[in-house]
Amino acid sequence: MDAQTKTRPFHILALSGGGYRGLYTATILRRLEEALGQPLARHFDLICGTSAGGLLALGLAAEIATEELEAMFVSDGKRIFGSRSLLRRVLGKWVLAKHSAAGLQAVLAERLGEMTIGDLKHRVLIPAVNYSKGSGQFFKTPHLPKYETDFRRRLVDVGLATAAAPTYFPLHRIDGVGAFADGGLVGNSPGFFGLHEATRLLDIGDDSTVRVLSLGTMTRGATLRGSAFLDRGLFQWGAKIFDLVISAQEAAVNDMLRHVLGNRYYRIDDPATPDQSRDIEKLDVVSAGATTVLRERGSHAAQRALGDPAFDVFRKHLATPPIFYHGPNKNTGVVTC
């Protein structure tokens, strides 16, 4: 990376996971893109996304219109979260995953086709958990010489990997790589991963201003009623344990980024009111009520951000065209930074 690039501001977009609540994020992205008048990805030097946020991040980096990304939830939400045979209706969540991955796979194939990470126009970082080796794995564009394999991965496979939420969807196997579970298990809010990528791996210089714009999904803090039974086994925990993991992680990352970056960290999210919580309580509920809440609150959140002077730095920033070292978008013969 050249000296001039190291001193320019470096902006990171971080998109959280949240199942169908990703519609809230998608609505914000659409409204921001409309206001900025060009593909939103061109304003960010690195796009990070987990689970539903990972699907959006891949779409943004491919410069798919945000209107189409929003439609992926509105028009196809029931296909994604409705692939339930009679067997899954009886055994789903307890013996089998609640939903088949067939609906999500079909929706992703229609929008992403046979594109690979190497076809993307902007840097991405997509967390998942490789259950075959028991650790997190991060799919990345070839923006460093050592990133020699991920550019071959199909976007459909990466999307299925990062969104394989335990109890909701089956694990997703990528042949020769591993069986993957939802990226929310390692980092539902991926802003800190993006900050590490920029400062420690891309070696953005100390003279450069690194900022993070983080978008949530109206994440409900997973909490316990005062009268709840405390001695819980698998039956009582069920999918709630995954909800608790992503909620706790998101809160921790939010606090740490505020501490580390101060006013260089900007967060767009909203708490649900008690009445609205009933509509969006579960990650996989696709209903008219949930759709209305998520789209209306997303539109208001975007309008609030666009009117906030603190958001202006993100509006005005244009990313430096990325250097890719491998794949169809390779644009350098240099093998070292």
Automatic annotation (TrEMBL):
Its EC number is 3.1.1.-. CDD domains: Pat17_PNPLA8_PNPLA9_like. The keyword Disulfide bond does not apply. It comes from the Bacteria. A motif (GXSXG) lies at residues 49-53. Residues 13-195 form the PNPLA domain. It holds the Pfam family Patatin. GO terms for biological process: lipid catabolic process. One of its GO terms (molecular function) is hydrolase activity. SUPFAM superfamilies: FabD/lysophospholipase-like. It is an enzyme of class 3 (hydrolase). Keywords: Hydrolase, Lipid degradation, Lipid metabolism. The active site is at S51, D182. A motif (DGA/G) lies at residues 182-184. A motif (GXGXXG) lies at residues 17-22. PANTHER family: INTRACELLLAR PHOSPHOLIPASE A FAMILY, PHOSPHOLIPASE A2. NCBIfam families: CBASS_lipase. This is CGAMP-activated phospholipase. It comes from Paraburkholderia phenoliruptrix. The gene is capV.
